[in-house]
Structures are given as C-alpha cells and as structure tokens.
Specification:
Elements: E1 2-6, H1 13-22, E2 26-31, H2 34-42, H3 53-64, E3 68-72, H4 78-88, E4 92-95, H5 102-105, H6 109-133, E5 138-144, E6 159-164, E7 167-172, H7 180-199, E8 202-208, E9 210-212, H8 238-248, E10 252-255, E11 261-266, H9 267-279, E12 287-292, E13 295-298, H10 299-309, E14 316-319, H11 337-340, H12 350-362
Parallel strand pairs: 1-2, 1-4, 2-3, 4-5, 5-8, 8-12, 9-11, 10-14
Antiparallel strand pairs: 6-7, 11-13
Helix pairs in contact: 1-9, 4-6, 6-7, 8-10, 8-12
Bound molecules: nicotinamide-adenine-dinucleotide and sulfoquinovose-uridine-C1,5'-diphosphate.
Nicotinamide-adenine-dinucleotide binds next to strand 2, helix 2, helix 6, strand 5 and strand 9.
Length: about 400
C-alpha cells in the first residue's frame, strides 16, 4: 500500500514508518519538527540520541535499500496538507502529528491554546484535503484511551448501546478526558465522525493506551535509526520514566496513591496495530474505533514491577498528585477488535523490563536528574516551569531564574 505517516519524525511515527517500509509498503513521512522544538523550549533531550530526519531516511536507504519520502511542513498549513496528499496519493494516512503531552497542554493558557489549535486544526485540514483529493483514502487517526476518562462502568470500543425511557440507540461512548491535550483528541474524534457522515470518508480512530519501550526490529539495525525516549516530567510517560528513575537511583515518582489504572502496550505492538488497521480498512463512509492497548496496570503496580525487575536497589515515593484525576477507581476496557484482526501482543514481563532498563543503562550519562520531577500542576492556570533552563512559549509565562 501507499501509506503517508504524519508525525513520522516522532517517538512512534518514525518506527512505524520503518516497519511499514520494511514490510513492503511505499511510505512517506510528514513532520514539522515541533517535537524537537519542545525539547529546546523545555531544556531537555531524548535519552537516546536521535539523528535528524534526512539522515534517518538516508541510513534506512543504505541499510535496507528502501526509499522513504520526507515532506517537511505543518499540518496547520492547509495548502501544504492539500499539496502533500495530492502529490503522494496515499491509500492510507496514519496521523500521529499532534502535540501529545498532557502536562505540556496544562502549563498555561498559551500551551493549552497551542495544543488544541495545532491538533484540531491540523486534523481538520487533513479531513478537507482527503475529501477534496480522494475520499477513498483511509484515515488511521491516533486517538487516546484517555478520551474516555475513568467511568465507573465498563468502557466499550467507541460506542455504547443505551436504553433511555424505553428507546434504544448505539451512541458514541461518553467522554471525560483529563487534560486539554486529551480534550483535543475528543474534539478530533467528533470532527472525524462528522466528516465520515457528511462526506462519506472512512476512518479508524485508534484509542491508544500508554506506549512503553524504545527498540523495534528496524530501529535496532543502525544507531541512526533509533527513535526518541522521553523521561522528563512533561513528555516522559509513566513506565519509561520509572525505568530511568530506577537506573539513576531516583525514587520512583508515583503520583498520589498510584491506583490510577491505564491501558498500556509495547511499542512493537503499536507497529503491528497500525499495519493491521491499514490492511483492513473500514467501508466507505464508516467511522470505527479500536481500543489499542493490550493490558491494564495501576501506576503502583508498574512501579512495583520495575522495582522487582531492577537488579539494584530501587524505591518508590508517593508524591502529591500534580494532576486532577481519580487515584483509585474501577477500570475495565474492551480491547478485542485488534485481537480479532490478528494482533499477537507482547505482554509486559521481566524480559521486556530488562530490555528497557538496558537501553537506559547504556545512556544513563545523558540523564539530567533535574528534568525528572513533575513541574506542571493541573490546578494552576500559570505554571512556573522548573525544568533545566526552561525557556517559555508564552510572553505571559513567568519563569524563575534557572538553577542550572
Ligand atoms: P511525538 O511528539 O514523539 O510525535 C509526534 C510528531 O508529530 C512529532 O515528530 C511532531 O514534530 C509532529 N507534529 C506535531 N504537530 C505537527 C504539525 N502541526 N504538523 C506536522 N507535524 C507535527 O508523539 P508520539 O509519542 O510519537 O505520539 C504520536 C501520536 O500517538 C500522538 O498523536 C499521540 O497523541 C498518540 N499517542 C501516543 C501515546 C504514547 O504513549 N506515546 C499513547 C497514545 C496515543
Ligand atoms: N504518573 C505517575 N508518575 C509519573 C508519571 C505519570 O504516577 O511519574 C501517572 C499519571 O498521574 C497518570 C498516569 O501515570 O495517572 C499516566 O501518565 P502518563 O504521563 O504516562 O500518560 P498520559 O498523560 O495519560 O499521556 C500518555 C501520552 C499521551 C497518550 C496517553 C494515553 O503522553 O500522548 O494519549 O498516554 S492514555 O493514558 O491512555 O490516555
């Protein structure tokens, strides 16, 4: 298939592009390097060094003999999106290209506005481009399990049958997201479902859980093919952070009681899920939702698993939760549709944890301990960042003198 990967320079987009290319698809990647810019803004860096996109593409050609086309541009630029979709003429577009950090979106007003404008208008431009260029293009959109929040009933895959005053309908599952970032995904979902209804587009909304891990079969072929690995308090996700914390001797930062339960998946399963979604498109006009995760764990369970797997001494600290979220709750979410398509999950166990810990060991000298503490407090409307040498996006953002 011809597949265009938007956000193809990011943590997931790059290994997905390599995987699809290696599997014989014709792949193009699009990125505006916003993610690299957030690193400059926050004064942090990927734990694993990453090469720039042009070098990545060149090394992939040398290693595999395969070509990946790169398009540099911004999805909020409607004419760039239209031009790129027309020129590449994809059968499927995999859309990763959004600001994806919940804490980043909660820094202050300007970061919340940036996140929603970037994410919602980028996706809207894409919907218009698909409708205009070729409505048969299958949009595979990365959503998030966090769209649902943590209701006190089972979570279904996108839709729920409701009987109300004697009448029954199948309706979109209620959404109770926990950050302005997660809300941007809800807004996207509504826009995509509407575009499928009015223009007859077709789309798969992948409500993905939290991804862990860094190595995939293709990224291991050459150091210049490595993907990023974030551990800082703004972009690092929970399990990747706990592995870094164990290795550098920092107490594992469990927020609150640690009963927050989330769907999780191995980065290698993300690659497989994306290909399965592309190879099995929905009907024209159909909007479908897959819950893309393989297991759920509480934050405290994850911390305990890392303590158990780490060969040295590691301890757990319960910090006041900087977020507004339930610290203990019911959680049971359906996730059968990708399994029905043939997904064979890599489950989280000692081997996977040992391999993540060994990636961290190899790069431990690059860890900046000052970047580990959480810095964004949900209850505040104007956070003062204490990351190492943070600059600010907003002119209104107050910064304290750096202690770097
Ligand atoms: P990432 O930030 O590493 O990658 C996103 C890429 O998109 C970056 O390279 C960035 O530069 C690019 N981008 C952002 N805005 C853009 C724009 N306007 N135009 C062009 N490019 C733009 O994030 P990731 O961890 O790879 O996540 C990818 C997607 O998957 C996101 O949509 C995220 O919400 C979703 N997701 C991620 C996780 C996770 O655990 N990492 C879990 C669930 C869902
Ligand atoms: N947490 C801790 N300690 C930490 C970091 C996080 O206890 O050091 C807790 C958080 O409070 C939260 C949970 O762990 O309850 C998950 O936090 P996270 O930062 O790992 O994940 P989240 O903010 O939900 O966002 C990540 C990705 C996002 C994606 C989402 C999937 O950054 O792009 O959409 O996971 S999901 O969680 O299913 O919505």
């Amino acid at each position: 298939m011809r597949i265009l990967v938007l956000g193809g320079d990011g943590y997931l987009g790059w290994p997905v592009a390599l995987h699809l290319s290696g599997r014989g698809h014709e792949v193009g990647v699009v990125d505006n390097f916003a993610r690299r810019q957030y690193d400059f803004e926050m004064g942090v860096d990927s734990l694993v060094p990453i090469s720039h996109l042009q070098r990545r593409v060149r090394v992939w050609r040398e290693v595999s003999g395969l070509e990946i086309s790169a398009y540099v541009g911004d999805l909020t630029d409607a004419s760039f999106v239209h031009r790129t979709v027309k020129e590449f003429a994809p059968e499927a577009i995999v859309h990763f290209a959004e600001q994806r950090s919940a804490p980043y979106s909660m820094i202050d007003q300007s970061h919340a506005v940036y996140t929603q404008v970037n994410n919602v208008s980028g996706t809207l431009n894409l919907l218009y481009a698909i409708a205009d260029v070729d409505p048969s293009i299958h949009l595979v959109k990365l959503g998030t399990m966090g769209e649902y929040g943590t209701p006190n009933i089972d979570i279904e895959e996108g839709f729920i049958e409701i009987t109300h005053r004697g009448r029954t309908d199948v309706l979109p599952y209620p959404k109770q997201p926990g950050s302005f970032y997660h809300l941007s995904k809800v807004h996207d979902s509504h826009n995509i479902m509407f575009a499928c209804r009015i223009w007859g587009l077709r789309s798969t909304d992948l409500n993905q859980g939290i991804v862990y891990g860094q190595e995939t079969p293709e990224t291991l072929l050459h150091p210049d093919l490595a993907t990023r690995f974030d551990y800082d308090g703004v972009f690092g996700t929970v399990l990747n952070r706990f592995c870094v914390q164990a290795v550098v001797g920092h107490p594992l930062t469990v927020y609150g009681k640690g009963g927050q339960t989330r769907g999780m998946l191995d980065i290698r399963d993300t690659l497989a899920c994306i290909e399965l979604a592309c190879l099995n498109p929905p009907d024209q006009g159909e909007y479908r939702v897959f819950n893309q995760f393989t297991e759920s764990f509480s934050v405290l369970q994850l911390a305990e698993m890392v303590v158990e797997a780490y060969p040295g001494k590691a301890e757990i600290a319960h910090l006041d939760d900087p977020r507004v979220e339930k610290e203990e709750h019911y959680y049971r979410a359906a996730h059968t549709k990708l399994l029905d398509l043939g997904l064979v999950p890599h489950l989280l166990g000692p081997r996977t944890l040992a391999s993540i810990l060994s990636v961290v060991e190899r790069h431990r000298d690059r860890v900046d301990p000052r970047a580990i503490e959480p810095t964004v407090e949900w209850r505040s409307t104007a956070n003062v960042l204490r990351t190492s040498g943070a600059a600010d996006r907003a002119t209104s953002l107050e910064t304290e003198p750096s202690d770097a």
